[in-house]
Amino acid sequence: MATNASSTEDVPPEEAQPTKQNGEANQNNKPAKDTNAGHESLKYSLLGPSLTKAGQDSVDQSKVSEIIYEASKGSKFFSREEAKDKILTAKISHILAKKARLDKLDLTRDLRAADTLIAQLELSRDLTQHIVHLDCDAFYAAVELLDRPELADVPFAVGGGVLTTCNYVARKFGCRSGMAGFVAKKLCPQLVFLPLNFEKYNAKAAEVREVLAEYDPRFESASIDEAYLNITEYCAEKGMGPAEVVEQMRREIHEKTKITVSAGIAANSKLAKICSNMNKPNGQFVLPSDRTAIMEFMRDLPCRKLNGVGRVFERELAAVGVKTCGDIYGQRQYLNQLFGEKAYEFLMTCYLGLGRTSVQPAEEYERKSVGTESTFKDMSDPVQLREKLRWTAEELEKDMRRAECKGRTLVLKVKLHTYEVFTRQVVTPKAVYLADDLYNYSLPILAKLEQERPGMKLRLMGLRCTHLVSTKKPDTLAFFGLKPRRTESAGSADEQSGSPHAKRVQRDGEWEQWPEEALDGYELEMDKDGTSETREQSGSPFRRHGKEVLSNPTPKKAQSVPEEEWWDCPICSRPQAANERLFNEHIDLCLSRQAIRDTVQQEAALSSTGSTGTTPESRRSGSVGEKKRGRPAHGRGPDPRQKKLCFG
Amino acid sequence: MATNASSTEDVPPEEAQPTKQNGEANQNNKPAKDTNAGHESLKYSLLGPSLTKAGQDSVDQSKVSEIIYEASKGSKFFSREEAKDKILTAKISHILAKKARLDKLDLTRDLRAADTLIAQLELSRDLTQHIVHLDCDAFYAAVELLDRPELADVPFAVGGGVLTTCNYVARKFGCRSGMAGFVAKKLCPQLVFLPLNFEKYNAKAAEVREVLAEYDPRFESASIDEAYLNITEYCAEKGMGPAEVVEQMRREIHEKTKITVSAGIAANSKLAKICSNMNKPNGQFVLPSDRTAIMEFMRDLPCRKLNGVGRVFERELAAVGVKTCGDIYGQRQYLNQLFGEKAYEFLMTCYLGLGRTSVQPAEEYERKSVGTESTFKDMSDPVQLREKLRWTAEELEKDMRRAECKGRTLVLKVKLHTYEVFTRQVVTPKAVYLADDLYNYSLPILAKLEQERPGMKLRLMGLRCTHLVSTKKPDTLAFFGLKPRRTESAGSADEQSGSPHAKRVQRDGEWEQWPEEALDGYELEMDKDGTSETREQSGSPFRRHGKEVLSNPTPKKAQSVPEEEWWDCPICSRPQAANERLFNEHIDLCLSRQAIRDTVQQEAALSSTGSTGTTPESRRSGSVGEKKRGRPAHGRGPDPRQKKLCFG
DNA sequence: GTGGAGTCC
DNA sequence: AATGGGACTCCAC
DNA sequence: GGGCAAGTT
DNA sequence: TCGTAACTTGCCC
Ligand SMILES: Nc1ncnc2c1ncn2[C@H]1C[C@H](O)[C@@H](COP(=O)(O)OP(=O)(O)OP(=O)(O)O)O1
Ligand SMILES: Nc1ncnc2c1ncn2[C@H]1C[C@H](O)[C@@H](COP(=O)(O)OP(=O)(O)OP(=O)(O)O)O1
Ligand SMILES: [Mg+2]
Ligand SMILES: [Mg+2]
After folding, report:
1. Alpha-carbon distance A73 to A84, whole Å?
2. Whether the complex's predicted ipTM surpasses the cut of 0.90
3. How many domains are contained in chain A?
4. Are A494 and A439 in contact (CB under 8 A)?
5. Three-class DSSP category at A142
6. Looking at the structure, do residues A132 and A59 belong to the same domain, yes or no?
7. CB of B137 under 7 A from strand C?
8. Which domain holds residue B641?
9. Could you read off the pLDDT of B243-279 as tens digits, one per residue?
10. What does the pLDDT look like over B121-136, one tens digit per residue?
């Protein structure tokens, strides 16, 4: 139990700087402290990705770290982590070297560029909106607790092999999301394991959203247990303050759903997200919409708290002297060169505490991929692998049906027994979704992989479709503002096995049952003392905790919408609004689809604020919808839930 | 007469590289070749700014250079040029040093950024349009020749102190635009000097434009003697090829106006501009709208031929190994760091041979400044200087009346007897244009300047208004497409001495006569043997060869336009369309005028192609006007005549 | 925003 | 003896 | 566009 | 009890 300096807090270890001290150590030809220093960062890494985000601390991280380290030592997983840690350490010293070389250069240009950017960004600051980020407390655990009230005071976790979450009792022991079950058990031998019940979580999530819609009908579901709301309008109408509104909302959620939520209230979504973690669980935090208050808040905020900053980036930043967001300013002249344009701009907005002030329903975003993957016992037999691929393809077909789309490229993913991951993709001659197609097109690349590494032993296989084309009718949904969901899609346009199969049950995110594959059935039900050790079954078709795009529940009145006519694009076969000009525009667009897509994307990235790009979609907006200032009704933009490092 | 290597052609001298050779020379402590090397670049510089553009060569530049050098030697002007040359040489060695330091760095990121940019730009290539650049041959000279046919075969120039142009006979002697008269006389003792007659040039220019309107009613006047046309439509309608059309057009111009023009035909305006110089005079050149043809054309094109590349940039580029546009590619990883974002992007588009394919009438651009300046005998007496300032202010008032605008900031410019130039500006508490105001507001900054440099001796004084506010009614002119000019502006909105004084005579660019200031009258008429050396009088109110925005002549039918109503913005006092939404939008905008202006500007610069910014103006466009593909009816954009290095 | 430099006609 | 005038853009501060 | 690393829930 | 699954973005080649 090495009680080294600064290891009782969840702060990252100091980077071993190539200083004189280190040089001296090398002179001795004996890296005395190096073994230890190596452990430092590795141990920190082993703490897992969800470290600071979990909210509750007051845990002796050094003990936790030690236990995890001991539990992990020697495993293949550990080796892999070790290797990655080495690589990262090398990468960081490379960064530092580059910074040193950069220092010899004249950086005034970069400095001024940064200041210009800051000034420009500052102009875009909007403090007029009240954005709320809501996050359910220990969500899966909370849901499970409703059915198992006796677990209220005992530490328990949801998920077996890896914890998806655990209750706050368990967190006191150091248990966290993403932690291996057996490690958690070491940390907390009394820990109870519960299996996953996605239906329940989805149903509960729907209940919560039901309440949210009253406060902002255009709220944005950011994940199964999170949402953003813009309550500016609500506050104005009701003559209430934001904190007051959120208290009421949280009370109402608690009453109606019996679960507790935490909330952050701030001028933009990035800040709100950070704030929702401040008073977890069952609390809320208001960051005043005041420039200096925001700047001070950011100044002392550890970078790791930022939404796009994980273990790796945290270490890299710390190495160049950036630990808090306030530190960013002092290093602004390096950041572009060291970390690239995107990260640089992201960090700038973070330093300033800027973020999105728009909030848009999830169904206005375009899903970009559908996939499935599973872990299994090490496998190298080619026949078995083909069986597994077949099975994976069938799983994927189900998901594709549910998603109502096909894919034009197929990605095969494998993880070796060493935890090395490889992916290989093919573009299919046509958009596919049937298991047969998925299998037949992915088989060759699996074969090629086998050839590349003969006798490879797999622990995971996955398939994913990208370059999706929707088979849903309401492709242009967003153009006309929030259209109610009952499209029912009696489509004849894309007859190719049109799968009018997927009917959604209203508002609980369920769908018609698919024939449950009878499989390696571990239908485990863990008892409370956690003795019956069963492998988690993650192959259930209800395992979704990924992308499930549901309409926001309509709060009161259902608005009526005229029945539109649709024309199908001969190129992409997506239905289009029956308007000649628009249709032609779309075809033009489609003809150089990818090219234009890339261009637009890059442009959007370049021009940070306001400018709307050139797609016909964006051209269309502006005539209908909310005229609420600062909350324009966007057409399908990028997915704001994702923490793209880009501001906006 | 030093006949040094490579001095018989108009190529710039080699930069004295800081190579070993140079280092050795320094060891000798005797810069043996340095004196010579210094002369090289200085002589080249003395050749004047309009070197390669003049078109005709086959002149022994070494002789010319030598004569100019000898004629200039010892003058204050020469000293100043010498000093500037030194500074530039130093700057270039600084650039080279930076490049060397850059070489120690990892430039793969910059390299890839450049390649990405190239790819992106390539996507925007539009080869579908036929753009023509027309340029009158030796324009002023050609116009003068019509009245003096006996000068056909004798070398003559227009303008006294400095030649504005000269005929092609004179050019054989090395005479050029911008050359000092006395120098030209040394080069060509027989040279005849003619005084300027701006009325004639403007009238003739209008005649030419009359013809142009038949071929493209939306042609763009780029200067008094140049225009861009998009003849794609015309070609299609008439079933003629571009070369054929342009031949016909040039023939027609020659028949109707008796002057000859040269033309370049290419896929975009940048290329067309270059091409119009290829077969001057009275010739045309077609660059095939074929990617590889264009790339090859650019590959061997000296950078100096590019519209934004002058003497200085040419030398800087040559120093880093970029002499032709093809050379740009090899150095692309350095260009951003060495020359800045704008120059970098500009050079990239040049390497690719890309440029604007849009052409828009001049009246759709917004003038940004109005000014006047004049050179005089060295003057340091404060009283005289005040008189001069007073006179300048009065000149400016006239120009402001003609321009129908006021200015919110005032720029005083002085040139010392040493040719050093200084400017000082003030923002006026309100928009001004009256001579009294101009004088009273600029006097303090003149005084301050006098204080800064006691006893300063001036050779030039100028005043310029910027941040203009128009007092014309049709502020929103561009929104409704090309509106005919007869606005007549019986304005009552801005009553403050509304100056309904400026009435324009139709289509010849003249305006009502202002009381001619009786001044130091040198009403010179030079005789053909050029013995009577008189100082050019440039103070005439008809001296305009600057910005005179005239409507394109309407080719056949005059379109009728409904009489609009105008509301005046309480902030900027500019008239606005009488539409409540638009008006409110405008006011919002005005309230944070500068801030937003800057933002938009920067954004426009950032997002290179297509994206349209966020001003209400730009939002408005798109519903009316040409639906011609690739020729969108723009709202007031930036002035494309100006060679901003930005691609667009 | 200010001042200087470069560019073009 | 002696080197223009109007306008615009970009950059560094 | 392919492959991979990183981040988030 | 034996280190998840689904999804996105960004960088590099
Ligand atoms: N690494 C993970 N893998 C799979 N599922 C996860 C993972 N992390 C979280 N989840 C699931 C389970 C969580 O209950 C749910 C919401 O996550 P999150 O909000 O981050 O934590 P939490 O709601 O469980 O606790 P809290 O928000 O109180 O910290 O998402
Ligand atoms: N410094 C200057 N350089 C060039 N032209 C100038 C200058 N000052 C005034 N002008 C006027 C006179 C020109 O006739 C007119 C058009 O210029 P420009 O087209 O460049 O040359 P040009 O028409 O005289 O000859 P050409 O086009 O045949 O080379 O602009
Ligand atoms: Mg949560
Ligand atoms: Mg000309």
Report:
1. 15
2. no
3. 4
4. no
5. helix
6. no
7. no
8. 564-603+634-648
9. 999 999 999 999 999 999 999 999 999 999 999 999 9
10. 999 999 999 999 999 9
